[in-house]
Recover the amino acids of this structure.
């Protein structure tokens, strides 16, 4: 199994970062504003849209803890994503809030995984920009690479 | 062992991307302009400086192939980096040149590794910006996170 792991520090209170990763409205501000549809509670399914009629990813929410933990199990979308697990673990630091992100359980270290790794870092910096300046770069405002 | 892997497509010819990752002058334009000291041939040692008197990393060049392959073995600097291997593998695509980057062989998936993963994605986007616009964001012009 292969994992993507990133750490980014955001100059914002933990409660604000939690809101941005735990709610559909929050996620829309930094990952995709084309559509984040579903609930925000454990057991809910969330569909993420990126300009196509079908969702690019479907996850089941597996953890929502206001102390700073959100986790999803990927149950639909890109074939390589199905079966992977995603987590946002937040912790206060002297510079704000540390976001430890994991997208774990990839079957193979493919070029698509490497692409997604760079994309996740880009969108975590979009999360940082959204919380620090009010403006993120969610799809379709994102840089394509 | 844990690996960082990123893939970024740069809208530039492979030869230009190769120059940017294979030469000390090229690397200065997107990773650190505080100091990239050493040779660019196999067996050379390169010291990378980030605002401190001691280098943050020292690598030995292990591969330089103008077909699009550069590799380094880390021999000094941050303790967690020593013994790791870095590689830039380039391939032409219809949108330019794909950069497949690996920083492989970490002993543990630490928070520092997760920090470095996000940092590498940021600097690969700096490489992209340098080659596409003429201006990258090497240290100390980089965003801190």
């Amino acid at each position: 199994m292969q994992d993507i792991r990133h750490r980014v520090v955001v100059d914002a209170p933990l409660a604000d970062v939690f809101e941005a990763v735990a709610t559909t409205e929050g996620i829309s501000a930094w990952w995709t504003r084309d559509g984040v549809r579903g609930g925000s509670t454990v057991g809910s399914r969330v569909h993420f849209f990126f300009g196509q009629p079908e969702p690019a990813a479907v996850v089941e929410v597996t953890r929502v803890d206001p102390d700073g933990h959100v986790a999803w199990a990927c149950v639909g979308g890109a074939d390589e994503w199905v079966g992977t697990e995603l987590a946002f673990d937040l912790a206060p630091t002297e510079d704000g809030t540390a976001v430890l992100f994991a997208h774990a359980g990839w079957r193979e270290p493919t070029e698509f995984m490497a692409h997604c790794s760079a994309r996740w870092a880009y969108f975590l910096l979009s999360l940082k920009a959204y919380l620090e300046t009010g403006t993120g770069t969610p799809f379709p405002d994102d840089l394509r690479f």
The radius of gyration of chain B is 14 Å.
